[in-house]
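look at this record:
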Amino acid sequence: MKDVQIYLCRHGETAWTLSGQHTGVTDIPLTENGKEQAVLLGDRLQKVHFTKVFSSPRIRALETCKIAGFKDVTLDSDLQEVNYGKYEGLTRNEIRKTDPNWHLFVNGAPSGETLAAASARADRFLSHLKALQGNIAIFSHGHFSRILALRWLGLETSLGRFFSLAPASLSILSFERETPVIKLWNDLSHLSKE
């Protein structure tokens, strides 16, 4: 697996990323700006040869993947966003009116997916990559991508609260010698107009 480099792509902007609503199981398409972000992300990735491309089956991730120019993609339900349970569709401010100290990476999602379950999904997906080599593209979601990166490093999921991940960002998970590392995180340079 030391010959693997993972290009971790968060989906582009949706109406709920703009409003700050937690989007787990709700299938929401990209905004027009989100589609443009996907084009620019694709422009950045076109020079890289990928041996395999994976996407969450949620429309916002798959749409980002396809607009970015990837047609031969493997859908994997392990790459879906965390199920936020009773907090689905709510903003942080709305949640904190009833649960003032809530944080996904500390408290999990009431009536939704536990952090242990999301972490197990990430571990399961990463175990499938052991047989692969080369550059691998993954199109997924904000909170789950953080969990995936932490599990790549062998770290606890609760540390996800210290990592920010913007829509249409690019991160790269790689190795330094035999040690898993984050080579690039939350890069948005492809979205700049310059």
